[in-house]
Design goal:
3 strands, elongated, disordered C terminus, mainly alpha
């Protein structure tokens, strides 16, 4: 998904310490190698931040964390969602933990009514693949509901494309999926981001 690739892709396309382009090595050009390296980096970052925080706060045991990290190697997904899927955390516990860890708001959006013009600011493909949902704009700031607010790549991408500040809010994954299904129409072609932006503000 683009939200996972965005924050890491620059690590593979910049000069290394010797001045040679990292992407010139045969391994760096192999799509399978790149994919494995990207997911390895994602797993390491999630392990360091979320897993340790959950253990420190007593929501998870070290044994449970070790087990879910092994599962993550095969399933490749957001650590928090794997914990929910395996019954070790509820969505509510996960959202509150992320809110406490990142010092952001935990919001319930089950009954949210969203301006369709705001929804169109984020393409359906990006919203669905990253499970994010634009909620409202205030003072040139877009408030974005996210399943995984640790994914700063998606907020940076949207901020860059829209030219406005993006504030992440954590919300239950199931609620975001339900509202995405309500406001977006699938299947649909993948539109360029700038095209979506033009439609939204026209």
């Amino acid at each position: 998904p683009p939200c996972q690739l965005w924050s890491l892709i620059n690590k593979y396309y910049r000069p290394d310490e010797t001045g040679a382009a990292a992407s010139e090595s045969p391994a760096a050009k192999d799509p399978e190698f790149i994919e494995k390296e990207i997911f390895r980096k994602i797993e390491q970052e999630q392990r360091k931040h979320l897993g340790d925080f959950l253990v420190e706060t007593g929501l998870l045991t070290q044994a449970q964390l070790t087990t879910v990290l092994e599962l993550q190697k095969d399933k490749r997904g957001f650590l928090g969602q794997l914990l929910v899927d395996n019954g070790w955390l509820t969505e509510a516990q996960l959202c509150q933990a992320l809110a406490d860890m990142l010092q952001i708001e935990n919001v319930d959006i089950e009954e949210a009514q969203i301006d369709p013009a705001v929804v169109r600011l984020v393409p359906d493909s990006l919203a669905a693949s990253c499970n994010v949902l634009p909620l409202f704009i205030e003072q040139n700031t877009l408030y974005l509901a996210m399943e995984n607010p640790l994914d700063t790549g998606v907020t940076q991408l949207i901020q860059y494309e829209l030219g406005m500040r993006v504030v992440p809010l954590v919300a239950p994954a199931s609620q975001i999926r339900n509202i995405i299904a309500k406001y977006y129409h699938f299947p649909s072609p993948v539109h360029p981001f700038i095209s979506k932006r033009a439609q939204a503000v026209s």
